[in-house]
Amino acid sequence: MEPPRWNIITPSQYEWERRGPDFIRTSLPDYDPYRAWSNFEFLTDDGAIYEVDLLILTKQGFWLVETKAWAVCMPVEYTPTVNDLADLLADAMRRPMTADSHRPRQIVFRGNPRWEELHPYLKQLGIEVSVQNELPHIEAVYEDFLRQMRRARSNPLILRTPSPTDVEKSFPAIAQWVRGYGHIEIGDQEGFGFIVRAIDYGGVVFEDDKPDTLAEAMAALEKGLTEFFEREGIE
Predict the structure, then answer these.
(1) What is the pTM of this model?
(2) Which letter does DSSP use for residue 26 in this model?
(3) Which among 75, 141, 152, 227 is least surrounded, fewest beta carbons within 10 Å?
(4) Would you tell me how many other CB atoms lie within 10 Å of the CB of residue 181?
């Protein structure tokens, strides 16, 4: 399918958001009634903002397509061990997001002693190990989120709630955490998808990669931190 039937409303800065629709585009018929629109936002009656990766019109009706950056998915209900990470890395090498199976030139780790056991084995395989305190791409995702919020605030069609939302009242456990226990991270991590974490000086206390939206991530983080405070006897 080619323009004008294929419409990119807002070009994406993320490779996976471009590659997914491009892959689908090559298989779509280039005649009526087929049409497609990619990367756009819409507002609901209550003022909520939703993003659409790809909307396709076919003879059977409309199809809504959501793209993800997950190269592999290993859902766990516990803190991952070094063996879990080794399995995940092996799977990523067999099924990378780009090209055929291959060893990566470099793997970036968070500065957590839990993963140091793997470093010598990776170096023996010729893979460079880099240790960083911050996750790659988190800042870019956060800046993109802020840009979306600024665009939303500048749009006169957005409906406001009758009174401002008190974030600390909505998420008391998160507020308590960031005031005196550690920090949080929410965003897209390459190879893992959308992820939310609570981190103290000793490492990751809570992590969840199941949420798909910021609202779901905040709800999961609030629940996880509430349970953490209860286990630790913190009021």
Answers:
(1) 0.33
(2) T
(3) 75
(4) 18
Residue whose structure tokens are 């409303």: 9
Q: Dihedral of the CA atoms 166, 170, 173, 178 (nearest 10)?
A: -40
pLDDT of 164-220, one tens digit each?
Answer: 446 777 788 998 888 888 898 888 776 667 788 898 877 888 988 888 788 888 888
Strand ranges across the sheet with 193-200: 183-189, 193-200, 203-208
Q: Going by DSSP bridges, is the β-strand pair 35-43/6-8 parallel, antiparallel, or unpaired?
A: parallel
E-state strands within 66-144: 106-110, 128-132
* Adjacent-strand bridge partners of 36: 6, 56
Give residue for tokens 């990751």: 204
Under 8 Å between Cβ of 30 and 2: yes
Q: Name 165's Cβ contacts closer than 8 Å, sequence gap at least 6.
A: none
Reported as a pLDDT band with limits 50, 70 and 90, residue 135 is low
Strands (E), the chain: 6-8, 35-43, 49-58, 61-65, 106-110, 128-132, 183-189, 193-200, 203-208
User: Which comes out higher in pLDDT, residue 186 or 71?
Assistant: 186
